[in-house]
Amino acid sequence: MSNHQVLLPVSELAELIKTKQLTSVELTKMVLEQAHRLNPEINAYISFRDEQALAEAAKMDQEIAEGRYRGPLHGIPMAIKDNIYIGGEVTTMASKYHENFVSEDDATVIAKLKEAGAVLLGKLNMHEYAWGITNNSPHFGPVKNPWKLEKIPGGSSGGSGAAVTAGMTPVTLGTDTAGSIRIPSSACGLVGLKPTHGLVAKYGCFPLAWTLDHIGPMARTVDDAAIVLQAIAGFDQRDPTSKQTQKLDYLANINDSLKGKVIGIEEEYFFKDVDAPIEKLVREQIAQLESQGATIKKVKIPALQNSEYAELITSLSEAGTIHYEQLKKDPSHYGEDIRMLFELGTLPSAVEYLQAQQMRRELKAQFKAVLDEVDVIIAPTLPVLPNDIGSDIAMINGKEVDLLNHVIRFTGPSNLTGLPALSIPVGMAEGLPVGMQIIGKAFDEATVFNIAKHVEKSVGFDFIAPIAK
After folding, report:
1. Per residue in 2-27, pLDDT tens?
2. What are the boundaries of each domain within the chain?
3. Which of 77, 102, 116, 246 has the most other CB atoms within 10 Å of its CB?
4. What value does the CA radius of gyration of the chain take, rounded to a whole number of Å?
């Protein structure tokens, strides 16, 4: 049995398992071997559950032998970001304070993955409490970008991004409050989707900021992201932000037609201060979509000028509230960068928070007006390439800039609006992947996937880093 199968997308692995050419136990063993082999270098995993995973895989194989096939995630091994609860097992949030925390219940998404037949491999490294974009953890060590080990993988779902692109898990989940699915997906060369707010229930995921948090897939292909979203989407009354929506088959709705599609381009915000190699690759794909039949329309969203302020005040205030009592008890348990942010979270006034929500409402209204005229909006995912681990400096066209001030500029607006946003690889620059962002209408992930599929075919990106092969 060749180990190359750990590098196959879920859509292909599912067919092999369904037709009994590959067992879940065989695949799970191969992925665990790959993960254990590379983890000393990449540090994507916080913990493994080898024994439990192999037992779960054996159960999935038995069900297939009995003719009880659950669907494309049946028997597929999958590691999970360590702020999503597996009932009865430790979930650390990559923190010291919660290093021994055990939840009673599975998160909603975990229960849905188990129902779909997924096999859980272990928990993935992340930026502490999901607040950060470098994934340089003071408690569990930095995650390294598999394309260049001296570079960050992006965050906060950095372990998730690194693990998928290194073949240490076929697919995974990330969480996203200001870009934490899309940032590492761009940095690691993956398809990462932040779904519409409310489409995927967040019960059992430790919150960073209630009104901004999302859970979504991080995968090697568009089809794989659609498969995972299909499994985890759905209402749960235990999450007050969860929405009742029509159940869709996202994979079946992916088609080849761009006829009649209108793509919006917002030049004044989304293409301002972008590193030239990134802008070039994104614009090339926009031109490709136009050549295939899409119409390109320039749009304006003036409220974007206030989005960074609104995102900052909202996230600071909500995160500061969540951690207020814990921070008072023992601030020394927090990493230095996170402690500072949580302490800053006590500073915004009620007036400032409410002003930020007024800006947010205006932003949502302007996005809706634009999306009434176009099908999606396309932008770079990041304006910068991944920087060196331990550095707070990024480069834009040869000029040094503060990483944190720039890295969430293009991702944060979709958290404020709650609109679906997907990052997809569009090529390489300086040996590192570059992502393009596709922003869609609320609950119209199907159109986002369709546009992304065209980009995927056009680019032909090799989503596996050489270290994995």
Report:
1. 578 999 999 999 999 999 999 999 99
2. 3-300+373-468
3. 77
4. 21
Tens digits of per-residue pLDDT, 315-369? Answer: 999 999 999 999 999 999 999 989 999 999 999 999 999 999 999 999 999 999 9
157 catalytic residue (yes or no): no
Which of 91-95, 249-253, 405-409 has maximum average pLDDT?
91-95
For residue 1, name the pLDDT band (cuts at 50, 70, 90): very low
Strand partners for 421: 194, 439
Please state, in angstroms and rounded to a whole number, the distance separating the CA atoms of residues 220 and 243.
Answer: 28
Q: Is-catalytic flag, 156?
A: yes
**Cα–chain center distance at 77:** 18
Look up residue 277 and give its amino acid: P
User: So what CATH class is 3-300+373-468?
Assistant: alpha beta
> Per-residue pLDDT tens for 153-185?
999 999 999 999 999 999 999 999 999 999 999
Q: Which residues contact 419 (CB under 8 A, 6 or more apart)?
A: 196, 367, 371, 439, 440, 441, 442
Residue in 95, 160, 180, 317 annotated catalytic: 180
Helices (H) and strands (E) in the chain, counts: 16, 15
Residue found by looking up tokens 């159960």 in the block = 59
List the alpha helices (DSSP H) in 233-306.
267-270, 276-291
Residue tagged active-site, from 11, 156, 414, 423: 156
For residues 324 and 268, the answer to whether their CB atoms sit within 8 Å is: no
At 272, phi and psi to the nearest 5?
A: -95, 135
- Residue tagged 């409402």 (tokens): 361
To the query of whether residue 160 is one of the catalytic residues in this protein, the response is no
Residue of 11, 24, 29, 81 marked catalytic = 81
- In this structure, how many other beta carbons lie within 10 angstroms of the beta carbon of residue 230? 22
Residue 262 host element (H or E) = strand 262-265
State pTM to two decimals. Answer: 0.97
The whole-angstrom separation of Cα 89 and Cα 119 is 15
